[in-house]
Input
Amino acid sequence: MKNMVRNYDGGITAFPAQLVSPCNVAEIQSILKDVGRYPGPVRAMGSYHSLTPCASSDGTIINMSGMNRTLEIDPKKMTFTAEAGLQFIVASRTLRAQNLQFLTNIEIGNMTLGAAACCHTKDGLDGGEFGQVGSYITGIKWVTPSGDLAEASDANNPALLHFMRSSYGLCGVVYEVTFRIKPLEAIQFSYLPRPIKDLTEKEVDRIIDASKGLICWTVGRRAHFQTRKHVDQVGPFASLFAAGRRRLWNHTEARVGRFIDSRIPTKPLRNASLDAWFAGSKLLMSTLKLVGGATLYNPDKTIDYSRTPSSAKYAFTFWAFPRSQWLDALREYLEFSEKHFKKYDFRCNMPLGSYFIRKDTQSILSYTHDGDVFSIDPIHAYTDKPAWDRFLKEFNEFAYKKNGIPLLNQSPFVERRHVEAAYGARWKQFSVQVKAADPQQRMLNPFFADLLSE
Ligand SMILES: Cc1cc2nc3c(=O)[nH]c(=O)nc-3n(C[C@H](O)[C@H](O)[C@H](O)COP(=O)(O)OP(=O)(O)OC[C@H]3O[C@@H](n4cnc5c(N)ncnc54)[C@H](O)[C@@H]3O)c2cc1C
Output
Protein backbone atom coordinates (compact mmCIF):
# COMPACT_ATOMS: atom_id res chain seq x y z
CA MET A 1 0.00 0.00 0.00
CA LYS A 2 1.17 3.55 -0.77
CA ASN A 3 2.50 5.72 2.07
CA MET A 4 0.04 8.45 2.94
CA VAL A 5 0.53 11.58 5.00
CA ARG A 6 -2.29 13.96 5.97
CA ASN A 7 -2.14 17.29 7.72
CA TYR A 8 -4.18 18.06 10.85
CA ASP A 9 -7.56 18.79 9.22
CA GLY A 10 -7.06 16.32 6.37
CA GLY A 11 -7.17 19.12 3.78
CA ILE A 12 -3.66 18.24 2.52
CA THR A 13 -2.47 14.75 1.60
CA ALA A 14 0.89 13.53 0.29
CA PHE A 15 2.02 10.14 -1.02
CA PRO A 16 5.80 9.93 -0.54
CA ALA A 17 7.75 7.07 -2.12
CA GLN A 18 9.61 6.80 1.22
CA LEU A 19 8.17 7.67 4.62
CA VAL A 20 10.84 7.24 7.29
CA SER A 21 11.01 7.84 11.01
CA PRO A 22 14.65 8.08 12.16
CA CYS A 23 15.60 7.58 15.81
CA ASN A 24 18.96 9.35 15.74
CA VAL A 25 21.00 11.86 13.77
CA ALA A 26 23.12 9.19 12.02
CA GLU A 27 19.94 7.80 10.43
CA ILE A 28 19.02 11.27 9.11
CA GLN A 29 22.53 11.55 7.65
CA SER A 30 22.21 8.19 5.86
CA ILE A 31 18.84 9.21 4.42
CA LEU A 32 20.18 12.47 3.03
CA LYS A 33 23.32 10.79 1.64
CA ASP A 34 21.49 7.94 -0.09
CA VAL A 35 19.97 9.69 -3.12
CA GLY A 36 19.08 6.39 -4.85
CA ARG A 37 17.09 4.89 -2.01
CA TYR A 38 15.62 8.15 -0.66
CA PRO A 39 14.55 10.29 -3.62
CA GLY A 40 14.03 14.03 -3.33
CA PRO A 41 12.40 16.21 -2.45
CA VAL A 42 13.31 15.26 1.11
CA ARG A 43 11.02 17.05 3.55
CA ALA A 44 11.17 16.89 7.34
CA MET A 45 7.74 16.63 8.94
CA GLY A 46 6.72 17.50 12.49
CA SER A 47 3.06 17.03 13.41
CA TYR A 48 1.92 18.47 10.05
CA HIS A 49 -0.35 21.01 11.64
CA SER A 50 0.59 23.41 8.85
CA LEU A 51 -2.16 24.65 6.56
CA THR A 52 -0.04 24.69 3.39
CA PRO A 53 1.79 21.79 1.66
CA CYS A 54 5.14 22.98 3.08
CA ALA A 55 6.03 19.52 4.45
CA SER A 56 4.69 17.55 1.45
CA SER A 57 6.78 15.47 -0.93
CA ASP A 58 6.26 12.60 -3.35
CA GLY A 59 9.92 11.67 -2.77
CA THR A 60 10.92 11.24 0.89
CA ILE A 61 9.21 12.48 4.04
CA ILE A 62 11.15 12.27 7.31
CA ASN A 63 8.71 11.97 10.20
CA MET A 64 10.56 13.46 13.18
CA SER A 65 8.30 11.95 15.88
CA GLY A 66 10.91 9.28 16.75
CA MET A 67 13.38 11.94 17.91
CA ASN A 68 11.59 13.35 20.92
CA ARG A 69 14.01 13.25 23.86
CA THR A 70 14.65 16.10 26.25
CA LEU A 71 18.44 16.47 26.36
CA GLU A 72 19.17 19.16 28.96
CA ILE A 73 17.46 21.68 31.21
CA ASP A 74 20.07 24.20 32.36
CA PRO A 75 18.67 26.26 35.27
CA LYS A 76 21.77 28.49 35.36
CA LYS A 77 21.78 29.51 31.70
CA MET A 78 17.97 29.14 31.71
CA THR A 79 17.92 27.03 28.54
CA PHE A 80 16.08 23.90 27.40
CA THR A 81 17.63 21.57 24.81
CA ALA A 82 15.74 18.76 23.09
CA GLU A 83 15.48 16.70 19.93
CA ALA A 84 13.50 18.31 17.13
CA GLY A 85 10.57 15.88 17.10
CA LEU A 86 9.50 16.70 20.67
CA GLN A 87 6.07 18.35 20.81
CA PHE A 88 5.73 21.70 22.53
CA ILE A 89 3.10 20.49 25.00
CA VAL A 90 5.30 17.62 26.19
CA ALA A 91 8.31 19.94 26.58
CA SER A 92 6.12 22.43 28.40
CA ARG A 93 4.93 19.78 30.90
CA THR A 94 8.54 18.72 31.55
CA LEU A 95 9.50 22.33 32.29
CA ARG A 96 6.39 22.88 34.41
CA ALA A 97 7.42 19.99 36.69
CA GLN A 98 10.48 22.13 37.57
CA ASN A 99 8.50 25.39 37.91
CA LEU A 100 9.86 26.58 34.57
CA GLN A 101 8.27 27.59 31.26
CA PHE A 102 8.99 28.75 27.71
CA LEU A 103 8.92 32.49 27.03
CA THR A 104 6.24 32.01 24.39
CA ASN A 105 3.59 29.55 25.50
CA ILE A 106 2.07 29.12 22.10
CA GLU A 107 -1.49 27.85 21.82
CA ILE A 108 -0.60 25.00 19.44
CA GLY A 109 0.74 22.28 21.73
CA ASN A 110 1.43 19.78 18.96
CA MET A 111 3.92 21.89 17.07
CA THR A 112 7.30 20.14 17.18
CA LEU A 113 10.32 22.03 18.44
CA GLY A 114 12.06 21.50 15.07
CA ALA A 115 9.23 23.28 13.25
CA ALA A 116 9.20 26.00 15.93
CA ALA A 117 12.89 26.56 15.26
CA CYS A 118 12.62 27.13 11.51
CA CYS A 119 9.02 28.14 10.64
CA HIS A 120 6.66 31.03 11.08
CA THR A 121 4.77 31.09 14.40
CA LYS A 122 2.61 33.58 16.26
CA ASP A 123 1.47 34.12 19.81
CA GLY A 124 -0.20 37.42 20.66
CA LEU A 125 -0.71 36.85 24.36
CA ASP A 126 2.96 36.23 25.19
CA GLY A 127 4.18 38.87 22.78
CA GLY A 128 5.56 41.30 25.39
CA GLU A 129 8.99 40.99 23.80
CA PHE A 130 8.67 38.67 20.77
CA GLY A 131 5.52 36.91 19.53
CA GLN A 132 7.45 34.39 17.40
CA VAL A 133 8.65 31.22 19.12
CA GLY A 134 11.81 30.87 17.02
CA SER A 135 13.04 34.24 18.24
CA TYR A 136 13.86 32.60 21.60
CA ILE A 137 15.93 29.83 20.02
CA THR A 138 19.56 30.20 21.05
CA GLY A 139 20.99 27.26 19.09
CA ILE A 140 20.05 24.90 16.23
CA LYS A 141 21.81 21.75 14.99
CA TRP A 142 20.93 20.25 11.63
CA VAL A 143 21.90 17.79 8.92
CA THR A 144 22.68 19.57 5.64
CA PRO A 145 21.17 18.47 2.28
CA SER A 146 24.37 16.50 1.55
CA GLY A 147 24.22 14.69 4.91
CA ASP A 148 26.83 16.65 6.90
CA LEU A 149 26.37 18.08 10.38
CA ALA A 150 26.04 21.82 10.96
CA GLU A 151 25.13 24.14 13.82
CA ALA A 152 24.61 27.80 14.63
CA SER A 153 23.97 29.62 17.88
CA ASP A 154 23.72 33.11 19.33
CA ALA A 155 27.35 32.79 20.42
CA ASN A 156 28.66 31.00 17.34
CA ASN A 157 27.48 32.37 13.98
CA PRO A 158 24.39 34.47 14.84
CA ALA A 159 24.06 35.50 11.16
CA LEU A 160 23.52 31.87 10.17
CA LEU A 161 21.06 31.43 13.06
CA HIS A 162 19.14 34.48 11.75
CA PHE A 163 18.74 32.64 8.43
CA MET A 164 18.07 29.17 9.91
CA ARG A 165 15.18 30.51 12.04
CA SER A 166 13.22 30.89 8.76
CA SER A 167 14.70 27.98 6.84
CA TYR A 168 11.61 25.72 6.71
CA GLY A 169 13.70 22.59 6.20
CA LEU A 170 15.05 23.96 2.90
CA CYS A 171 18.65 23.88 4.14
CA GLY A 172 18.49 20.53 5.90
CA VAL A 173 16.82 18.67 8.72
CA VAL A 174 16.91 20.24 12.19
CA TYR A 175 17.63 17.56 14.81
CA GLU A 176 18.36 19.53 18.02
CA VAL A 177 17.24 22.90 19.36
CA THR A 178 17.92 25.05 22.42
CA PHE A 179 15.37 27.55 23.75
CA ARG A 180 15.50 30.28 26.36
CA ILE A 181 13.25 29.53 29.34
CA LYS A 182 12.11 31.35 32.50
CA PRO A 183 10.43 30.64 35.86
CA LEU A 184 6.77 29.60 35.81
CA GLU A 185 4.54 32.66 35.64
CA ALA A 186 0.95 33.40 36.68
CA ILE A 187 -0.96 35.69 34.32
CA GLN A 188 -4.31 37.42 34.09
CA PHE A 189 -6.46 37.87 31.00
CA SER A 190 -8.65 40.98 30.76
CA TYR A 191 -11.37 41.60 28.20
CA LEU A 192 -12.51 44.85 26.59
CA PRO A 193 -15.47 44.66 24.18
CA ARG A 194 -15.78 47.64 21.77
CA PRO A 195 -18.12 48.31 18.83
CA ILE A 196 -15.91 48.56 15.75
CA LYS A 197 -17.73 51.64 14.46
CA ASP A 198 -16.66 53.59 17.59
CA LEU A 199 -13.01 52.50 17.58
CA THR A 200 -10.37 55.02 16.60
CA GLU A 201 -6.76 54.41 15.68
CA LYS A 202 -5.70 56.36 18.77
CA GLU A 203 -7.74 54.06 21.01
CA VAL A 204 -6.25 50.95 19.36
CA ASP A 205 -2.79 52.44 19.93
CA ARG A 206 -3.59 53.05 23.60
CA ILE A 207 -4.80 49.45 24.04
CA ILE A 208 -1.66 48.11 22.36
CA ASP A 209 0.69 50.32 24.35
CA ALA A 210 -0.92 49.37 27.67
CA SER A 211 -0.75 45.61 27.07
CA LYS A 212 1.97 42.99 27.62
CA GLY A 213 0.22 40.71 25.15
CA LEU A 214 -2.85 41.12 22.98
CA ILE A 215 -5.34 39.25 20.84
CA CYS A 216 -8.56 40.68 19.47
CA TRP A 217 -11.63 38.52 18.80
CA THR A 218 -14.15 40.03 16.40
CA VAL A 219 -17.65 38.64 16.61
CA GLY A 220 -20.18 40.31 14.32
CA ARG A 221 -19.34 44.01 14.44
CA ARG A 222 -17.81 43.99 17.90
CA ALA A 223 -14.10 43.67 18.72
CA HIS A 224 -13.11 42.04 22.04
CA PHE A 225 -9.57 42.93 23.08
CA GLN A 226 -8.04 40.20 25.23
CA THR A 227 -4.93 41.43 27.04
CA ARG A 228 -2.65 39.72 29.51
CA LYS A 229 -0.57 40.90 32.42
CA HIS A 230 1.63 39.30 35.08
CA VAL A 231 0.06 38.52 38.50
CA ASP A 232 1.76 37.25 41.65
CA GLN A 233 -0.50 34.23 41.97
CA VAL A 234 -3.43 32.59 40.22
CA GLY A 235 -6.97 32.82 41.62
CA PRO A 236 -9.07 29.90 42.94
CA PHE A 237 -10.73 29.22 39.55
CA ALA A 238 -7.51 29.19 37.49
CA SER A 239 -7.50 25.50 36.57
CA LEU A 240 -11.23 25.57 35.86
CA PHE A 241 -10.81 28.54 33.52
CA ALA A 242 -7.83 26.92 31.76
CA ALA A 243 -9.73 23.64 31.31
CA GLY A 244 -12.82 25.49 30.00
CA ARG A 245 -10.68 27.42 27.53
CA ARG A 246 -9.01 24.22 26.30
CA ARG A 247 -12.40 22.54 25.93
CA LEU A 248 -13.73 25.47 23.94
CA TRP A 249 -10.84 25.36 21.46
CA ASN A 250 -10.33 21.66 20.93
CA HIS A 251 -13.93 20.62 21.22
CA THR A 252 -16.88 23.01 21.40
CA GLU A 253 -16.23 26.06 19.17
CA ALA A 254 -15.66 24.20 15.91
CA ARG A 255 -18.16 21.45 16.64
CA VAL A 256 -21.07 23.88 17.14
CA GLY A 257 -20.18 25.89 14.02
CA ARG A 258 -19.95 22.70 11.97
CA PHE A 259 -23.18 21.33 13.42
CA ILE A 260 -25.07 24.51 12.47
CA ASP A 261 -23.69 24.52 8.92
CA SER A 262 -24.33 20.83 8.27
CA ARG A 263 -27.44 19.96 10.26
CA ILE A 264 -29.73 23.01 10.36
CA PRO A 265 -31.93 22.52 7.30
CA THR A 266 -32.91 25.97 5.99
CA LYS A 267 -30.82 29.07 5.30
CA PRO A 268 -32.82 31.47 7.57
CA LEU A 269 -32.70 28.97 10.45
CA ARG A 270 -28.98 28.39 9.89
CA ASN A 271 -28.25 32.10 9.95
CA ALA A 272 -30.37 32.65 13.04
CA SER A 273 -28.62 29.75 14.83
CA LEU A 274 -25.13 31.05 13.99
CA ASP A 275 -26.13 34.56 15.09
CA ALA A 276 -27.43 33.12 18.38
CA TRP A 277 -24.19 31.15 18.90
CA PHE A 278 -22.13 34.30 18.19
CA ALA A 279 -24.33 36.26 20.64
CA GLY A 280 -23.39 33.62 23.24
CA SER A 281 -19.66 34.17 22.52
CA LYS A 282 -20.10 37.93 22.96
CA LEU A 283 -21.97 37.39 26.21
CA LEU A 284 -19.17 35.13 27.48
CA MET A 285 -16.52 37.78 26.80
CA SER A 286 -18.67 40.57 28.30
CA THR A 287 -19.20 38.42 31.42
CA LEU A 288 -15.44 37.84 31.67
CA LYS A 289 -14.99 41.62 31.56
CA LEU A 290 -17.61 42.10 34.30
CA VAL A 291 -15.96 39.59 36.64
CA GLY A 292 -12.53 41.21 36.10
CA GLY A 293 -11.09 38.62 33.71
CA ALA A 294 -9.45 35.35 34.72
CA THR A 295 -6.07 34.08 35.89
CA LEU A 296 -4.09 30.99 34.91
CA TYR A 297 -0.55 29.63 34.79
CA ASN A 298 1.01 30.79 31.53
CA PRO A 299 1.77 27.28 30.10
CA ASP A 300 -1.93 26.42 30.52
CA LYS A 301 -2.52 28.56 27.41
CA THR A 302 -1.11 25.69 25.35
CA ILE A 303 -3.66 23.23 23.98
CA ASP A 304 -3.22 19.57 23.09
CA TYR A 305 -5.07 18.90 19.82
CA SER A 306 -3.84 15.32 19.48
CA ARG A 307 -7.17 13.75 20.45
CA THR A 308 -9.51 16.32 18.90
CA PRO A 309 -12.26 14.46 17.00
CA SER A 310 -12.72 15.32 13.28
CA SER A 311 -16.04 17.02 14.04
CA ALA A 312 -14.21 19.51 16.32
CA LYS A 313 -11.28 20.40 14.04
CA TYR A 314 -11.00 23.85 12.52
CA ALA A 315 -8.87 25.54 9.87
CA PHE A 316 -7.77 29.15 9.49
CA THR A 317 -5.62 31.58 7.60
CA PHE A 318 -3.29 34.34 8.85
CA TRP A 319 -2.24 37.60 7.21
CA ALA A 320 -0.46 40.32 9.18
CA PHE A 321 -1.03 44.04 8.60
CA PRO A 322 1.16 46.97 9.63
CA ARG A 323 -0.11 48.22 13.01
CA SER A 324 -1.21 51.62 11.71
CA GLN A 325 -3.29 50.05 8.92
CA TRP A 326 -5.04 47.35 10.95
CA LEU A 327 -8.26 49.13 11.95
CA ASP A 328 -8.86 50.22 8.39
CA ALA A 329 -8.09 46.69 7.12
CA LEU A 330 -10.43 45.18 9.73
CA ARG A 331 -13.32 47.46 8.71
CA GLU A 332 -12.74 46.66 5.05
CA TYR A 333 -12.48 42.97 5.86
CA LEU A 334 -15.95 43.10 7.42
CA GLU A 335 -17.32 44.68 4.22
CA PHE A 336 -15.49 42.07 2.14
CA SER A 337 -16.82 39.15 4.18
CA GLU A 338 -20.39 40.48 4.16
CA LYS A 339 -20.28 40.88 0.37
CA HIS A 340 -18.85 37.38 0.07
CA PHE A 341 -21.70 36.06 2.23
CA LYS A 342 -24.33 37.76 0.05
CA LYS A 343 -22.73 36.45 -3.13
CA TYR A 344 -21.92 32.87 -2.14
CA ASP A 345 -23.91 32.25 1.05
CA PHE A 346 -20.64 31.47 2.85
CA ARG A 347 -19.44 32.92 6.12
CA CYS A 348 -16.94 31.77 8.71
CA ASN A 349 -18.61 29.98 11.59
CA MET A 350 -16.02 30.89 14.25
CA PRO A 351 -14.88 34.25 15.68
CA LEU A 352 -12.30 36.23 13.71
CA GLY A 353 -8.88 36.25 15.42
CA SER A 354 -6.30 39.07 15.36
CA TYR A 355 -2.83 38.67 16.89
CA PHE A 356 -0.74 41.68 17.82
CA ILE A 357 2.96 40.86 17.24
CA ARG A 358 5.81 43.26 17.97
CA LYS A 359 8.66 44.28 15.68
CA ASP A 360 11.22 41.49 15.69
CA THR A 361 14.32 41.20 13.51
CA GLN A 362 15.53 37.85 14.87
CA SER A 363 15.00 35.97 11.58
CA ILE A 364 15.30 36.79 7.91
CA LEU A 365 11.61 36.07 7.25
CA SER A 366 10.26 37.59 10.44
CA TYR A 367 6.91 39.03 9.35
CA THR A 368 7.43 41.87 11.84
CA HIS A 369 10.90 42.78 10.58
CA ASP A 370 9.72 46.22 9.45
CA GLY A 371 7.48 47.04 12.44
CA ASP A 372 4.62 45.93 14.71
CA VAL A 373 1.76 44.06 13.04
CA PHE A 374 -1.83 43.14 13.87
CA SER A 375 -3.29 40.20 11.95
CA ILE A 376 -6.64 39.24 10.47
CA ASP A 377 -7.29 35.49 10.85
CA PRO A 378 -10.57 34.08 9.53
CA ILE A 379 -11.23 30.78 11.35
CA HIS A 380 -13.71 28.17 10.12
CA ALA A 381 -14.88 24.59 10.73
CA TYR A 382 -15.57 23.63 7.15
CA THR A 383 -18.25 21.28 5.84
CA ASP A 384 -17.90 22.48 2.24
CA LYS A 385 -14.17 22.51 1.40
CA PRO A 386 -14.49 24.12 -2.09
CA ALA A 387 -16.50 27.01 -0.56
CA TRP A 388 -13.83 27.52 2.16
CA ASP A 389 -11.04 27.36 -0.45
CA ARG A 390 -12.81 29.95 -2.63
CA PHE A 391 -13.14 32.23 0.41
CA LEU A 392 -9.43 31.78 1.23
CA LYS A 393 -8.38 32.68 -2.32
CA GLU A 394 -10.57 35.80 -2.38
CA PHE A 395 -9.32 36.75 1.08
CA ASN A 396 -5.72 36.41 -0.17
CA GLU A 397 -6.50 38.88 -2.95
CA PHE A 398 -8.03 41.28 -0.40
CA ALA A 399 -5.11 40.95 2.01
CA TYR A 400 -2.48 41.27 -0.74
CA LYS A 401 -4.03 44.55 -1.92
CA LYS A 402 -4.07 45.85 1.68
CA ASN A 403 -0.28 45.31 2.19
CA GLY A 404 -0.82 42.09 4.12
CA ILE A 405 2.01 39.71 5.01
CA PRO A 406 1.31 35.96 4.69
CA LEU A 407 3.02 33.08 6.52
CA LEU A 408 4.38 30.14 4.54
CA ASN A 409 2.80 27.54 6.82
CA GLN A 410 -0.39 29.32 7.87
CA SER A 411 -1.72 31.20 4.82
CA PRO A 412 -3.25 28.64 2.44
CA PHE A 413 -2.83 29.31 -1.31
CA VAL A 414 0.05 31.73 -0.72
CA GLU A 415 1.74 32.68 -4.02
CA ARG A 416 5.11 34.06 -5.10
CA ARG A 417 3.72 37.55 -5.88
CA HIS A 418 2.33 37.66 -2.30
CA VAL A 419 5.66 36.83 -0.63
CA GLU A 420 7.70 39.00 -2.99
CA ALA A 421 5.49 42.00 -2.16
CA ALA A 422 5.36 41.26 1.57
CA TYR A 423 9.01 40.36 2.27
CA GLY A 424 10.61 42.53 -0.47
CA ALA A 425 14.40 42.39 -0.67
CA ARG A 426 14.52 39.84 2.16
CA TRP A 427 12.60 37.36 0.00
CA LYS A 428 15.15 37.70 -2.83
CA GLN A 429 18.02 37.29 -0.35
CA PHE A 430 16.29 34.26 1.22
CA SER A 431 15.83 32.66 -2.22
CA VAL A 432 19.51 33.17 -3.05
CA GLN A 433 20.65 31.74 0.31
CA VAL A 434 18.42 28.67 -0.03
CA LYS A 435 19.82 27.97 -3.49
CA ALA A 436 23.38 28.31 -2.18
CA ALA A 437 22.70 25.97 0.76
CA ASP A 438 21.05 23.32 -1.42
CA PRO A 439 22.46 23.58 -4.97
CA GLN A 440 21.18 20.09 -5.90
CA GLN A 441 17.64 21.06 -4.74
CA ARG A 442 17.46 17.94 -2.57
CA MET A 443 15.00 19.55 -0.14
CA LEU A 444 12.99 21.66 -2.62
CA ASN A 445 9.38 20.55 -3.05
CA PRO A 446 6.99 22.04 -5.65
CA PHE A 447 5.37 24.28 -3.01
CA PHE A 448 8.64 26.11 -2.28
CA ALA A 449 9.87 25.90 -5.90
CA ASP A 450 6.80 27.94 -6.89
CA LEU A 451 7.44 30.49 -4.13
CA LEU A 452 11.18 31.16 -4.37
CA SER A 453 12.23 34.07 -6.58
CA GLU A 454 14.15 33.41 -9.79
C1 LIG B 1 -5.65 23.76 15.30
C2 LIG B 1 -4.41 24.52 14.96
C3 LIG B 1 -3.99 25.56 15.77
C4 LIG B 1 -2.83 26.27 15.48
N1 LIG B 1 -2.45 27.28 16.29
C5 LIG B 1 -1.30 27.94 16.02
C6 LIG B 1 -0.85 28.99 16.87
O1 LIG B 1 -1.47 29.31 17.87
N2 LIG B 1 0.31 29.62 16.53
C7 LIG B 1 1.05 29.26 15.43
O2 LIG B 1 2.07 29.86 15.18
N3 LIG B 1 0.64 28.26 14.63
C8 LIG B 1 -0.51 27.62 14.88
N4 LIG B 1 -0.91 26.63 14.04
C9 LIG B 1 -0.09 26.34 12.83
C10 LIG B 1 0.97 25.25 13.03
O3 LIG B 1 1.05 24.85 14.30
C11 LIG B 1 2.33 25.67 12.58
O4 LIG B 1 2.24 25.75 11.18
C12 LIG B 1 3.55 24.76 12.95
O5 LIG B 1 4.61 24.97 12.07
C13 LIG B 1 3.25 23.33 12.89
O6 LIG B 1 4.29 22.59 13.51
P1 LIG B 1 4.46 21.11 13.02
O7 LIG B 1 5.37 20.39 13.93
O8 LIG B 1 3.12 20.50 12.81
O9 LIG B 1 5.21 21.36 11.63
P2 LIG B 1 4.88 20.74 10.20
O10 LIG B 1 3.59 21.27 9.73
O11 LIG B 1 5.04 19.28 10.21
O12 LIG B 1 6.05 21.38 9.34
C14 LIG B 1 6.12 22.76 9.10
C15 LIG B 1 7.33 23.08 8.22
O13 LIG B 1 8.54 22.83 8.96
C16 LIG B 1 9.36 21.90 8.32
N5 LIG B 1 9.93 21.09 9.39
C17 LIG B 1 9.27 20.43 10.37
N6 LIG B 1 10.14 19.83 11.20
C18 LIG B 1 11.38 20.10 10.73
C19 LIG B 1 12.70 19.75 11.12
N7 LIG B 1 12.94 18.97 12.18
N8 LIG B 1 13.75 20.22 10.37
C20 LIG B 1 13.54 21.00 9.30
N9 LIG B 1 12.32 21.35 8.89
C21 LIG B 1 11.24 20.92 9.58
C22 LIG B 1 8.43 21.13 7.40
O14 LIG B 1 9.12 20.60 6.29
C23 LIG B 1 7.47 22.22 6.98
O15 LIG B 1 8.01 23.00 5.96
C24 LIG B 1 -2.07 25.91 14.33
C25 LIG B 1 -2.50 24.86 13.51
C26 LIG B 1 -3.66 24.19 13.81
C27 LIG B 1 -4.09 23.09 12.89
Notes: The longest strand covers residues 173-183. The two ends are 38 Å apart (CA to CA). The pocket of flavin-adenine dinucleotide is lined by residues 8, 43-50, 54-55, 64, 84, 106-108, 111-112, 114-115, 118-119, 121-123, 168-169, 173-174, 305, 409-410 (CB under 6 Å). Residues 238-263 form the longest helix (26 residues).
